[in-house]
Every structure is written in structure tokens, then in C-alpha cells.
Amino acid sequence: MNLILAYLTDPAHWQGSGGIPARVLEHLIYTLVTLLVAAAIGVPLGLWVGHTGRGRWAVVNLVNGMRSVPTLGLLFVAVLVLGPRIRGDLAFVVPSILVLVVLAVPPILAGAYAGVDAVDPLARDAAKAMGMSSREVLFGVELPCALPLLFGGLRSAALQVVATATIAAAVSVGGLGRLLIDGQAVRDYGQMAAGAVLVAALALAVDLVFALVQRVAISPGLVPARRRPIDRKNPTPANPVA
Amino acid sequence: MTWFLDHLAQVGGLLVTHAYLAVVPLVVGLALAVPLGWLATRFPRLYTPLITASGLLYTIPSLALFVLMPLVLGLGILNPLNVIVALTLYTVALLVRTVADGLSSVPEQVRQAATAMGIGPVRRFVTVELPLAVPVIAAGLRVAAVSNVSIVSVAALIGIAQLGSLFTDGFARDFLDPIVVGIVACIVLALILDLAIVALARAVTPWLRGGRAG
Amino acid sequence: MIRFSDVRKTYPDGTVAVDGLTLEAPTGQITVLVGPSGCGKTTSLRMINKMIEPTSGSITVDGRDISGMNADELRRGMGYVIQSGGLFPHRTVLDNIATVPLLLGVPKTQARASAMELLERMGLSTSLAKRYPNQLSGGQQQRVGVARALAADPPIMLMDEPFSAVDPQVREQLQDEFLRLQGELGKTIVFVTHDIDEAVKLGDQVAVLRVGGTLAQLASPERLLADPADDFVADFLGRDRGYRGLAFAPGGSVPIGTEPTVVLGTSSDAARSVASGAAWLLIVDEAGAPVGWVEPARLGARVERSDLHRGGTVARASGSLRAALDAALSAPSRRGVLTDDAGRLIGTVSAHDVLAAIEGAGGSADGTPASSNGDGAP
């Protein structure tokens, strides 16, 4: 404990390009870039699969299959194979981001697909029968109704990316993982543990941000039957909605 | 391929360790998650705190948890027990929710019928509710097993030997073969565990087999 | 007018859903398609708005063949109501109702204002406007579903089992409101149900379909009950057909007797003297509405609410013979209570007089002589 506090309270560790704020920023940039790219691929693809019903089988298997691929191994292969073809610092960053994207797409894709798939068929049917075009059904009904599960997918992708970006420090990219990997190299347990605490805090913070965004973005009508404030004196709700 | 054949014994040894590090947490985690999941369904007041706590636990990146474990357990950083405990935590975090959902998926009529026949709560749990929740729990267990295999390899970064060591060694020597072999071995191990769980779940739920009807 | 001409629908797996259907749904009337599951009633309905394309045959709306029309435009001109509403969970009640007007390009404020009016018209509180569907009861959702279909004031309404997902009491209420609304709006309605009682109650004409998608009989409800075309239709109509057919026989011809009454709260001595020895005495409230029967011999000091026998149903004098007969059969005095449309007592009828009226009308097609075995509710 004291080792962690000692590391975190040393002002020297909060300055410069290797300082904690810079590392946090790097970590956030990797995460954000990855999520944007992964969402740009996964969301339209997932919506398309959900809307047309084509390729469901592929989605389910892709998600399950990707889970069994060890991320660390994938990261090393990407850097060894792609690194030499890219010049400068990007030799490590680009392959790493690529692997992060590959990991982040399946949960986002699955979330978007499952979200559209879970839309009440009666609502979809009614939308069509009222004369909505295929586009209007997708953007007016299916997408907004898919948001809860779509956000679920984005959220787990974000956590996955934060965790894997930490590991990516092993292939010489920046981010908070540096504290852990560099600490390991010089047997500085204080630095490693401080890095671990910071990474955990960052993950929790990212999750919290997602929870807040979700609350604003999702229609209250899609939140499962809100629990009424329980009357302490009379715990059985007086007149439950049938 | 030649590298693989030359290092068969080494890969085999790492595979066994890897399997051990992945499976022990799975078994211990399941054993802990069942009573916790039961508590969460039995006492609705406990549901939200238990689910929230396991959710938070699950957000902690694996490398961070591996590094922090020695601090919590007071063990040396190279002790494999750190990895086992960390993975057990993940497994419990994942399965508490699954077990709770599985138990609450048991139809209320079945529960009441069992009670009406005079089956006590403990006996009812073991003989009626738990068996009926098996399919849901097995689905969660499959996810946990496959993720455990992948996460164990990360422990190579803090120096704990298993298939992940093939990644770090290969990378350090700029040599692809061991990395590819390691990846394939990990996938094969995950697949075997997955199939084993499916087979086990099938074996204990004979009522779900046969007849296409329903 | 919607016209089916020899319409057939065959699915790729060989199932024949609709087979040679020829049918007219007249403008301004309710045509009910009824039949067991697998009779193609929903398929037929969904072919009208091109949700399903017929394999052969043609469907015309006001003389225009729909096969050449743009599906989305066609649909926007037809209200569509389905079981449990099919409401959009992510939109408020008001925005659900305003859906089609907004699709048609009506300005938002205007669409919402008319949605608000419709909400009231459907008997829903305007306080529900900002709620979401999952905060409504089943009956409320169903009403919003109807309001949504009516929002663009389409001349045609297609309704697929719109009232089957709610409990019987609410269903009856929704049916009554629906008929009242149709009285005001006069839409051309095609209504699908599996419930023959609902078909008979709501339809201006009823089409009974049999499994395999063929039309077994197309007739007015009276005609259907009086003269089923074959065994299938007769079976499907079920028992008590004669009694149910009385629902379509006007009750005006039955002689109405005056009934001595006292007001609730009258002293029992006064009540006994009014009853002058009769076993049962009718009690009314201050407004003259009947509230129940009492036995004068068993009264305490005054006529109290607790003394009332509530077995008797009350029929409107302008209602059907069925209601009058039920009122007579259900009253402990065997005298059926009749009221005017405002609910005030007019007098009573005896079962004997009602039966005499039925036999007097026996030569007409309406209703066969009653062989009642107790279809309780009027």
C-alpha cells in the first residue's frame, strides 16, 4: 500500500511525457480511436444483419470464436508481421490499434444485431403496415429500440479495449500499461501496483461514463418497468399497472 | 511445424499448466457462485449489491488484477496462486449473475408444486431449482471457461509460465513459430473445455434430450 | 369498397392459406373475417395493405387494383390495428399516435394537437400523453393502438384481433366504444377475429372462413345465426344460436306494464302498502332509476341498500328482445325491468309476453324460436 502511495504522491511522476496524465491521455486516445473505428464497422454491419436477418449464424460464431483467441498472442503476431512494414513509432501503435479493433468489433456487432433482433416483431410489423419505408423502419423504430443492447455491446467493447490496451504496453506502445511493464522490467513493484490501481480506476471511470451516456441516450420507454419508489409503510404497490 | 515437433514436450508441459490455471478457478468459482446466486434470488435485497459488485470486479483489467493480487494475498509476485485467485474472482463475478438468472428462470409453478409436495427449501434447491437452471448456468460457464483460457496467457507478462510464455519468448526473439503454436494451443484448449462443459450439461439434463417435440 | 376477386395465396412450402376468396367489404361498414386458426383470415387482411402479396386473383380498393400501387402510400391511407397494439416502446403515447400524420408531412405541433384530441376521443386521460407504452395497462395500450390507426383519418381501417389480448370485461368495453366511434366515423372496416361472439356483435356482415382458406358463408349476423350454410358454420357458431339471434330482434312490440315502486329509504310500512301483498317490490333511486328488488315481508324499519336483491338485469326499451327476455328471466319477480335510454324506469315485461312477441315475429328471417338454456349475460 505504502509503495503505491509513495509512487502516486511523488510529483515527478505527474510530469512530462512519461508522467501519469500523459499516460492516461494516451490510454484514452487508444481507446477512443479503437471504439470509433470498431463502431464504424460493427454498428452498421450489426444493424444490417438484424434488419435483414442475413448472416446471424456468422455473427454468433464470430463472437464466440473471437473470445477464444488469446489477445496477447494476437498482439505479438500483429506487431511481428506488420511492424516491419510500417515506419517509425507507428510500427507498434498501428498493429496494436488494429488488434484492439479486431477485438472490439465482435461485441459491438453482436450488440447491434441482438438489439435489432430483440425489437418487438409486432412493433416492426405495425411500422411497416403504417407505411414506413424500410429506411424509416430501421432508423425510426429498430435503431432506437436497439440502443439498450447496442450500448451494452459498446460498453463491454470499451472495457475489453481498456484492458487490452494495457497489455499492449508489452509491444512498446504508450498508455498506463507502461507503468506495469516498465515496473516489471526494473522490479519496481510500487510502480507496477500504482499502474494497476490507475488502470482499474480508468476502467471504472470509462464504465461510469458509458452508464451516464446510456441513461441520457435511451428512451425511458425502453427501460424495463421502472421500479416504483417503495412506500415504506405499505410495501405492496396500491394499484399495479395491469 | 518443425519448431512445434522439436518442442513437443515443452508445449505439452505448458499446456497442462495452462489448463490447470484455467480450470481450477472455473471449478472453485462455480462452487462459490452457486450459493451467492441463490442468496441473490432468495433475498431480493441482496440482488442489486451482489450484481453491482460482480460487475465492478469484472471491469478491472486482468493485468492490473494480477499485479494487485500479491498485495492482497501477501504472496510473491511469481506465485501462480495469484493468477488462480484472480481468475476465480472473474469467474465468480461472471457466474453470480448467470446463476441468479438461471434460478429465477425456473417457472414459479414448478417451485410452488415442489413446495406443495412438502419438499423443503434446501432439498427443493438441490433437486428441483438447480437442475432446471443447468442450461443457463452452463452457458455462463462456457463463456467463463473460454475467457479464462485467454486471460491466463496474459500472466506471462508478469513471469508466470504457461502457454502465454510462448508468446513472450517468441516476441523477445522476433520469432513467429512459438507464438502461432501458442495461439493454436490456446484455441484448442478453449474448444476442449467448451465441448466438455456442453457434454457435462447434456449428461445432467437428460430431460432436454431426445424428442423434437416442444 | 374493398373487393377480393378469386384471391389465392400459396406459400412456397405448398400451404394454401387463402383459396379462391371472393368478397366485398362495403364502404362505411364493418366486415368481420372469422374462423379457426389456419383459415387464412389474417393473411386475407394483410393482403389488403400489401403486407402479403396474393399468388393470384386481384384486390381492388374503390375500383383501383392495388397491385399497381406503391405499398407505402397505400398503407398510409389505411389504419392498421393489431393485437396488443404493436406500439413503439421508445415513443411517448402522443408521438405513437402522431406517427402517420408525421410520415405524411403534417407539422409536428399540428400532429400532436390532433393526437391529443384523439386521445380524449378514445376515452383516455390527456395525462397519459407523455407516458410510454410500458407504463399503460393492456386496455389503454389497445386504445392508443386504435387512436394511432385513426390519426391520419384514413377511410379504411384494418384490424387484426385488436381486442383479444385484454380481459373479457375490458374487451366488452372496448367493443362498445368501438361501435360508438364507428357510429360517428363511418369507416370502411375489415376486422379479423377468432371469436364468433365478437364477430356477431361487431359485424355489419360476417365472413366465416374454414381451414384451407375458403369462404364458408358471408352474411349479416342475424342471417348467419338464423340460417348457417352448412355443418361447419353451424358448429362454429356454437350453441344457443336461437337465443343469441334474439339480440337482433327489436324489442319494441312487447307490452310494457306499469310497476309500483318506492324510493330507497322509504319506511317499510309504506313499502308494504305499495306492494299490496306482492312477494317482490321494485326500488328506484331519486332519479327514477331502478336499483333492485326487495321482499316487503322481510324488511326492517326502512328500505336499505342491504335489502336489495341484485339478480335482475335491466334492459333498455329500445334494445333487443334478447335483453328484454334476459331481464325477465333473471329478475326474482320474473318481471323484466325496462328503462329509457337515460336509465329511468319505464315499466316491466313478463317472459311470457316477450315469447309471444318472438312467436309473433317468427315468420320473419330474424331469429328462430328460442330454446333458451341459459346464456346468462344480456
Automatic annotation (TrEMBL), chain B:
Residues 15-199 form the ABC transmembrane type-1 domain. It is a multi-pass membrane protein. GO terms for cellular component: plasma membrane. The keyword Ribosomal protein does not apply. Coiled coil: none annotated. It comes from the Bacteria. Its main location: membrane. The chain crosses the membrane at residues 20-43, 55-77, 83-104, 151-172, 179-201. Keywords: Membrane, Transmembrane, Transmembrane helix, Transport. One of its GO terms (biological process) is glycine betaine transport. It is found in: Cell membrane; Membrane. Belongs to the binding-protein-dependent transport system permease family. This is ABC transporter permease. The lineage of its organism: Bacteria, Bacillati, Actinomycetota, Actinomycetes, Propionibacteriales.
From TrEMBL, chain C:
It is an enzyme of class 7 (translocase). Residues 2-237 form the ABC transporter domain. One of its GO terms (molecular function) is ABC-type quaternary ammonium compound transporting activity. Keywords: ATP-binding, Nucleotide-binding, Transport. Signal peptide: none annotated. SMART domains: AAA (SM00382). Its EC number is 7.6.2.9. The keyword NAD does not apply. It comes from the Bacteria. InterPro entries: AAA+_ATPase (IPR003593), ABC_transporter-like_ATP-bd (IPR003439), ABC_transporter-like_CS (IPR017871), CBS_dom_sf (IPR046342), P-loop_NTPase (IPR027417). The keyword Transcription regulation does not apply. Pfam families: ABC_tran (PF00005). Belongs to the ABC transporter superfamily. PANTHER family: OSMOPROTECTANT IMPORT ATP-BINDING PROTEIN OSMV (PTHR43117:SF4). This is ABC-type quaternary amine transporter. It comes from Propioniciclava tarda.
